[in-house]
Design goal:
The protein is α+β, with helices and mostly antiparallel strands and about 300 residues long. The protein has twelve helices and seven strands. Helix content is about 40%, strand content about 15%.
Length: about 300
């Protein structure tokens, strides 16, 4: 089955004519840009992509496995080749021997620059070991809203098993652990225990998917996220009018003109320290939430995923 035929919401934007002109590092950049350009796939600045690429060591001329990963604070939708950190994979693996446990995991971040390949000074992401210790060549770690809906649900693990049964996947679940070396060890061990898994859901956090080639990684990622979207949408449709406790209010006919009148005042107040540009949405999904019984309570809880 062609990839697009598996998708209900997302599009397969991979162009083989472009891809065949790119080397391994540029293919990582290309894959990253395709994923990050669609906010249904990951939020702006969120997530990271990586590839383990064979390269010639500038010191001794031998071939080394080098991990390329999004630099800290970068955005995969706009990242260029120079925005990736490059690290010796062998040196990253050697850090396991220096790890003194959860209470001391912050000190590991200072070790990442010592693993840099070549003269690359791009700061490595806090998620670097998460990618390094997974035994896959190409990895996507993203935060799609559909994935967060599952990962942040109180019954998320149960729903993940339902998703696996429905779509024939073998996602595995890891409970919340802040990003860092400890989580990397948890990921490594989880995959060892379930070597035929096809993805990982991090509770309250996000999604890991992978592939043997850049193309396969991209396809696996968008197919998984699209099917998560189908799964969530089916739950939304079943809840129907009862979603968020049902309607408490209805939308005013002049809501757009009211928004235009109020918005400059709101923007001015929140721009007291730094000038900001606001955005406004009156989509059916937004109005369903703002008109609901539970809107006030839920909106004050903060984001479901940090």
């Amino acid at each position: 089955m062609k990839t697009q035929e598996k998708l209900r919401y997302l599009e397969d934007r991979w162009d083989d004519r472009v891809a065949k002109t790119l080397d391994d590092a540029e293919l990582l950049r290309y894959r990253s840009n395709l994923l990050g350009s669609d906010l249904r796939i990951t939020n702006f600045g969120g997530g990271n992509t990586s590839s383990k690429i064979s390269d010639t060591d500038p010191l001794d001329g031998t071939k080394k496995s080098v991990m390329w990963i999004k630099g800290s604070g970068g955005d995969i939708g706009s990242i260029q080749r120079k925005g990736f950190a490059t690290l010796y994979l062998e040196k990253l693996h050697a850090l396991i021997g220096r790890y003194r446990g959860l209470d001391a995991e912050d000190e590991m971040v200072e070790m990442y620059p010592l693993c840099a390949f070549g003269n690359n000074t791009v700061a490595a992401s806090i998620d670097t070991p998460l990618h390094a210790f997974l035994p896959f060549k190409h990895i996507d770690h993203l935060h799609p809203d559909w994935g967060i809906a599952l990962a942040a649900a109180a019954n998320g693990r149960e729903k993940m098993e339902e998703f696996n049964r429905t779509y024939g996947h073998k996602l595995i679940w890891l409970p919340w652990q802040r990003p860092g070396f400890e989580l990397a060890m948890m990921l490594r061990d989880a995959v060892k225990q379930v070597p035929d898994c096809d993805g990982i859901v991090l509770g309250g956090h996000g999604l890991f998917t992978w592939g043997d080639t850049q193309r396969q990684c991209y396809v696996n990622t968008i197919a998984m996220i699209d099917q998560l979207g189908q799964f969530v949408s089916e739950h939304v449709e079943r809840r129907g009018a009862h979603l968020f406790g049902g309607n408490r209010t209805t939308t005013l006919e002049n809501h757009l003109s009211l928004a235009h009148e109020i918005f400059p005042f709101v923007r001015g107040r929140v721009s007291a320290k730094q000038r900001l540009i606001g955005s406004f949405s009156a989509s059916s999904e937004v109005l369903r939430f703002t008109n609901s019984v539970d809107a006030a309570k839920l909106s004050h809880l903060g984001t479901s995923c940090p």
